[in-house]
């Protein structure tokens, strides 16, 4: 059941983000990656183990670094990081002892991560094949043009 819920929820978040425009900003999926990685630190804090908090923080930092690299260069790095975190979920309990992790979490998170990676990869491939589309900014800043290029264009996301 955690696998099904993880996949369904990742699809739901992707559709919601797309429908309200959250994913137009190239920071959306890297931010999701950082939040996903932070949960193991939260679970470590809940367990009360400082050593586990430190270990999980180091791992989180690696995934956060990948998210930043993907934000600054190519979103494909974020796709790989999300999928990599899914693999990490599958082996986490064998590598790091974290008593705060709920029993269902690794399966749920693996499914969510892989679903999010697949969704972002699909979106990148789809957008890479389409020309840059102008969008209307609902809230332009003073001096900013009302029409601007989308942040999730092939030039912004696949470079």
Write a structural description:
The protein is mainly alpha-helical and 159 residues long. Helices cover 70% and strands 4% of the residues. It has six helices and two strands. The protein has helices at residues 2-20, 28-47, 50-72, 75-95, 105-128, 154-157; strands at residues 134-136, 147-149. A two-stranded antiparallel ribbon has the order 1-2. Helix 3 (50-72) runs antiparallel to helix 4 (75-95) and helix 4 packs antiparallel against helix 5. The longest helix is centred in the last third of the chain and has 24 residues, at 105-128. It is globular. It starts with a helix and ends with a helix. The relative contact order is 0.17. The model is unreliable at 131-137 and 144-159 (pLDDT under 50).
Write the layout of secondary structure elements.
Elements: H1 2-20, H2 28-47, H3 50-72, H4 75-95, H5 105-128, E1 134-136, E2 147-149, H6 154-157
Number of strands: 2
Strand content: under 5%
Q: Spatial order of the strands in the main sheet? A: 1-2
The percentage helix is 55-70%
How far is the first residue's CA from the last residue's CA? 38 Å
What class do helices, strands and sheet pairing give? mainly alpha
pLDDT averaged residue by residue = 86
The best one-word shape is: globular
Radius of gyration equals 17 Å
**What's the main sheet like?**
2 strands, antiparallel
Contiguous uncertain segments of 5+ residues? 131-137, 144-159
From the structure above, extract its key features.
disordered C terminus; 2 strands; mainly alpha; about 5% strand; single chain; two-stranded antiparallel ribbon; about 160 residues
């Amino acid at each position: 059941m955690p696998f099904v819920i993880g996949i369904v929820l990742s699809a739901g978040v992707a559709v919601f983000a797309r429908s309200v425009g959250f994913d137009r900003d190239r920071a959306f999926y890297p931010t999701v990656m950082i939040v996903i990685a932070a949960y193991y630190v939260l679970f470590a804090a809940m367990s009360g183990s400082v050593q586990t908090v430190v270990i999980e923080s180091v791992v989180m930092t690696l995934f956060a670094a990948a998210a930043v690299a993907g934000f600054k260069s190519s979103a494909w790095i974020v796709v790989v990081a999300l999928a990599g975190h899914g693999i990490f979920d599958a082996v986490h309990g064998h590598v790091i002892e974290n008593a705060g992790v709920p029993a269902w979490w690794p399966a749920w998170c693996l499914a969510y991560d892989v679903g999010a990676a697949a969704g972002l990869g699909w979106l990148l491939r789809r957008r890479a094949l389409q020309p840059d589309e102008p969008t209307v900014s609902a809230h332009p800043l003073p001096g900013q043009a009302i029409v601007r290029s989308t942040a999730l264009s092939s030039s912004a996301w696949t470079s």
